[in-house]
Design goal:
- The structure is a single chain.
- The chain is of the alpha/beta class.
- It folds into two domains: about 140 residues, FAD/NAD(P)-binding domain (3-Layer(bba) Sandwich); about 220 residues, FAD/NAD(P)-binding domain.
- The protein contains twelve helices and 23 strands.
- The strands form seven sheets. Strands 3-2-1-7-19-18 form a six-stranded mixed β-sheet, sandwiched between helices. A four-stranded parallel β-sheet has the order 11-10-9-15.
- A hairpin with a 2-residue loop joins β5 and β6.
- The protein is elongated.
- It starts with 12 loop residues before the first strand and ends with a helix.
- It binds flavin-adenine dinucleotide.
- The site of flavin-adenine dinucleotide has 33 residues, from α1, β2, β4, α6 and α9.
Length: about 450
């Protein structure tokens, strides 16, 4: 028998929000004082600050510092209920959303829907690469990558065969966007600085780190000048940067790429491979686009109206990484500002005295882009202003601390960065038994 959709018993306007990431959480906060009842649904129990996942993956900070509990963040907001469950279906004609947690299924009826389910990794049709080259989108990914990296060093310590040892100490990062560049810089510092003198079977310069990208420069959104600076900084750290390198295969033991200039095929033997080359919007995007009769692009992003509604459905909004609108990039600020915007529009719609435009177009204010290359070194692009090095690094620190949710997390992260800047040690290099699954992959790969 079909379930009667859950609705708030007080009869208030019911807003269902899918996703407690940057877009969802900001929409919910914007509606704090509105006369609405909100159900926020997320498959994770925490709000993840993705821009710092690479620091979890390389042991600088702990997982909890960038993933505060969603319930705790919203503890002081009375008009929101949090549901920890995965949305498996949305029906925009019936105005229902179905969520599931470990077999428990519940359907919610809504008056307004905000979809902010973000994006996952894309392997451009080669999903089998994922087993050997995990992406970095979730805490699980970051912890698994940390385990793979550290396990590779530990195995190398025991390996007598020089060829196998070299393979264990070879790390290939695919994708030279901000995530790939940041992760590469941190792996290089981990190998050369943190691990210096801690292994007896090999020296700190034994690790080989490759950064591959099919594009002709690193950090394409930052322009040629900053891209060149970032590349030089990585090369000074000993990273082998290979551009115009289109990856064609990833196996247990190796990565193969085609040099787009010379057509040459090159294979690099490596135990640890990490994928940061592409994104695909949540499949909920295509589901909704098909129902609304609007287009979704190859990355699954939905063509939304200027006010972030979908097709004729004026009560369905999409924000953040799932939208295709005016070539907006998939960055945190697009999601934060989009969440605030739709919160404002919903408030205007239900407030009968409001004279605000209920269909006001979304206008994105570009606050610039930044990426850290290594300790004390970053690149910043703010409109036409570009700078790099230490001043950029300080700006990055300040801004990221500002945007991390919660006083406690902010303080802990600031403290860990300070310690990391002046000490070789990192406080989060532990691998749990559970994460040793990754080590088993490496075991199997080598035999
Ligand atoms: C490693 C990494 C580094 C980055 N660095 C930067 C950076 O330096 N600067 C920058 O501006 N941007 C950066 N970004 C991009 C930025 O994090 C995203 O643009 C931003 O998170 C998008 O916000 P969102 O709300 O659309 O999605 P998200 O923040 O991804 O939130 C989506 C939420 O939806 C939930 N969800 C998904 N599907 C379902 C479902 N079916 N049911 C229930 N819940 C669901 C997820 O659990 C998640 O909590 C980075 C991204 C990554 C992965």
């Amino acid at each position: 028998m079909a379930q009667t959709p859950h609705r708030p018993s007080n009869g208030r306007h019911h807003v269902v929000v899918i996703g407690a990431g940057f877009g969802g959480i900001n929409a919910v906060k914007k509606l704090k004082d509105a006369d609405v009842e909100i159900t926020l649904i997320d498959k994770k129990n925490h709000h993840l600050f993705q821009p710092m996942l690479y620091q979890v993956a390389t042991g600088v900070i702990s997982a909890g510092e960038i993933a505060p509990s969603t319930r705790q963040i919203l503890r002081h907001q009375d008009n929101v209920s949090f549901v920890n469950g995965e949305v498996t279906d949305v029906n925009i004609k019936d105005q229902t959303v179905t969520a599931e947690l470990d077999g428990a299924v519940r359907t919610y009826g809504y008056d307004s829907l905000i979809v902010a389910a973000g994006a996952g990794q894309s392997y451009f049709g080669n999903d089998h690469f994922a087993e050997y080259a995990p992406g970095m989108k979730t805490l699980d990914d970051a912890l698994e990558i940390r385990s793979r990296i550290i396990s590779a060093f530990e195995k190398a310590e025991l390996e007598e065969d020089p060829a196998k040892r070299e393979k264990l100490l070879t790390f290939v990062i695919v994708g030279a966007g901000p995530t790939g560049v940041e992760l590469t810089g941190q792996i290089a510092e981990l190998a050369q600085r943190t691990f210096a003198g801690t292994y007896s079977n090999f020296g700190s310069s034994s690790a080989k780190i490759y950064l591959l990208d099919g594009a002709p420069q690193v950090l394409p959104p930052f322009g040629k000048r900053l891209g060149r600076k970032a590349q030089r900084t990585l090369e000074k750290l000993g990273v082998d940067v290979r551009l115009n390198a289109m990856v064609t295969d990833v196996t247990a033991d190796a990565v193969t790429y085609k040099n787009m200039k010379t057509e040459e095929e090159v294979t690099i033997e490596a135990a640890t491979k990490i994928w940061s080359a592409g994104v695909a919007a949540s499949p909920l995007g295509k589901l909704i686009a098909d129902q609304a009769g609007v287009e979704s692009d190859r990355a699954g992003r939905v063509s939304v109206n200027e006010d972030l509604t979908v097709g004729e459905y004026k009560n369905v909004y999409i924000v953040g990484d799932m939208i295709s609108l005016n070539r907006l990039p998939g960055v945190a600020q697009v999601a934060i500002q989009g969440g605030n915007h739709v919160g404002k529009l919903i408030e205007a719609k239900i407030d009968e005295e409001s004279t605000a435009n209920e269909a006001e177009p979304f206008e994105y204010f570009d606050k610039g882009s930044m990426a850290v290359i290594s300790r004390f070194n970053a690149v910043v692009k703010l409109g036409k202003t570009e700078f790099a090095g230490f001043p950029a690094w300080i700006s990055w620190l300040g801004l990221h601390i500002f945007y991390i949710v919660g006083f406690r997390s902010r303080t802990l992260v600031a403290l860990h960065w300070l310690l990391n800047a002046f000490s070789r040690d990192r406080g989060n290099l532990e691998i749990t038994q559970q994460q040793r699954v990754a080590r088993n992959v490496i075991d199997r790969d080598l035999h």
